[in-house]
Amino acid sequence: QVQLVESGGGLVQAGGSLRLSCAASGRSFSSYAMGWFRQAPGKERDFVAAITWSGVSTYYADSVKGRFTISSDNAKNTVYLQMNSLKPEDTAVYYCGAANSDYDFYYWGQGTQVTVSS
Prior knowledge:
The protein contains no helices and eleven strands. By secondary structure, the protein is mostly beta strands.
């Protein structure tokens, strides 16, 4: 059974930092890329960042460019999202997903709450 488990969320003041982790497990787990999405209350789930397991390609939403960094540790099957200069509008549940080469996301984690206070 494939599992994606996020961790690292929490409450932080504006301007602060958090690092999210997403650990993938399961004998049948395989993906081309991993990504982070977020969903604020009453809003749709939005793309945040993605990375290929090769580490060659990374993608970011305009709203987080220059503040967030996605990285991966292939040996640990883990993807990270370093979030700096956090703003109240970054408050959301952050989800990790696994994607194929068409960037169709087919596995999802349970989400981790990030709350940024002003």
